[in-house]
Automatic annotation (TrEMBL):
Residues 20-273 form the NADP-dependent oxidoreductase domain. Transmembrane segments: none annotated. It comes from Massilia antarctica. It comes from the Bacteria. InterPro entries: AKR (IPR020471), NAD(P)_OxRdtase_dom_sf (IPR036812), NADP_OxRdtase_dom (IPR023210). This is Aldo/keto reductase.
Length: 287
């Protein structure tokens, strides 16, 4: 993976990954957008954002196919993250789902394979299945998504639980609940958190975040967009990876430039006043 001086984060397994990657939610759903999406992911890779996050759920496999096309001929530059549905998380289901994902991605391995969220299948069975796939070389590392501290404590105590390499959760300036308990625990145990929806999803929540006067003021001081400041706020934190989605070249370049923004103590104070850190435990935010 080319770094282009990109900050890296160390997973629990000891492998390094870029602190800024690319998301693919909503990709692979419109054939007219396919080449634009492929091009955007390839540009991101050129700029050092070789970590690409996807899932069998995204476009029911369509996003994985877009990723497969984007990494064709340059697999070694990519770090592929994909996720298995909870209803496919039993021993046989995980294997079958992984094989389907590998086929759509046109690769022989998934770098990090996550349980998308908790379902009815016992965690111990999913972890067993992940370890079997890891031994066969079909996945390199495995992890979880949308796990709160209680889930992590439960998983960590199971056979194979200490091999969980990362946890992907909703985390951004407007959704800071994990700072109370999950983020400190994760840092203590060398467990990176991958922040999805780092700029919120489309709609009122995104507009409320990016239109915040304090965020806009900080952006003005730096000559940046509010989105770049929101990303820079995440990227300055130890053990956090941000995976914003971008489907056009200008947006991809803006995201990459956010990794070079250095926020001052004055900036951070302004942002804390506008987006207060948690003062008590909160339920895990999910989308």
């Amino acid at each position: 993976m080319g770094s282009c001086d990109m900050k890296t984060v160390t997973m629990r397994s000891g492998r390094l990954i870029p602190a800024l990657g690319q998301g693919t939610w909503n990709m692979g759903e419109d054939p007219a957008r396919r080449q634009h999406e492929i091009g955007a992911l390839q540009l991101g890779m050129d700029l050092g954002m070789g970590l690409i996050d996807t899932a069998e759920m995204y476009g029911e496999g369509g996003a994985e196919e877009v990723v497969g096309a984007a990494i064709a001929g340059r697999r070694e530059q990519a770090f592929i993250v994909s996720k298995v549905y909870p209803h496919n998380a039993d021993k046989r289901g995980v294997r079958a789902a992984c094989e389907r994902s590998l086929q759509r991605l046109a690769t022989d391995r998934i770098d990090l394979y996550l349980l998308h969220w908790r379902g009815a299948v016992p965690l111990s069975e999913t972890l067993d299945a992940f370890q079997a796939l890891q031994k066969e070389g079909k996945i390199v590392d495995f992890g979880v998504s949308n796990f709160d501290l209680g889930d992590m404590l439960e998983a960590d105590a199971l056979p194979g639980g200490r091999a969980i390499a990362a946890n992907q959760v909703l985390f951004n300036l407007a959704k800071r609940g994990i700072e109370w308990d999950l983020l400190p625990w994760s840092r203590k145990h060398g467990m990176p958190l991958m922040a999805y929806s780092p700029l919120e999803s489309a709609g009122p929540e995104r507009e409320l975040l990016l239109g915040n006067p304090s965020l806009m003021a900080v952006a003005g001081r730096h000559g940046c967009t509010p989105g770049q400041i929101a990303l820079a706020w995440l990227l300055r934190q130890d053990g956090v990876v941000a995976i914003p989605k971008a489907a056009d070249p200008a947006h991809v370049r803006q995201n990459r430039a956010a990794a070079d923004v250095v926020l001052s103590a004055f900036d951070l104070e302004d942002l804390d006043r506008a987006f207060a850190p948690p003062t008590k435990r909160q339920a895990l935010a999910m989308r």
